[in-house]
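REQUEST ID: PR-0412
SUBMITTED BY: lab tech R.K.
PRIORITY: routine
TASK: structure prediction, single protein chain
INPUT:
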Amino acid sequence: MLVAGPAHAAEAVPAAPDPALEARVHKLAAELRCLVCQNQSLADSNADLAVDLKNQVREQLRAGRSERDVLDYMTERYGDFVLYRPPVKASTLLLWGGPLLLLLIGALLYWRSLRASQAVPAAQAMSAEDAARADRLLRGADETPPPGR
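STATUS: complete
OUTPUT:
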């Protein structure tokens, strides 16, 4: 234990004086994406920018703005990327329709491959002459010289 370095822990966040406000902040922070993290919400992130954005949300709610007002402000400032559930509009249409489009393309390719495999003609039976020639070739007794000699 003496060899181990001291533990580095973050300071505890003081208990909120207004638990209802903190619940609203947490609810909104869960709907907003951290702009510097890999797919984390503001509520889940400890990045400096996420903490600043949570403080902005807290200050705006404390000033009397509604949740919708705060979301609109964040969207105006950072774009639809900041929302975990962006609105359906022309700029986000591919985001919403992309999975369905990929599913349809995959089904079409699967259907075409099935059709192509059914269209392959069945192998024809060998004639007696071809079977005899194959047998001679396998035994090395073919009387015809190979091409090129």
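NOTES: Helices lie at 19-31, 48-62, 67-78, 93-118, 128-139.
REVIEWED BY: pending
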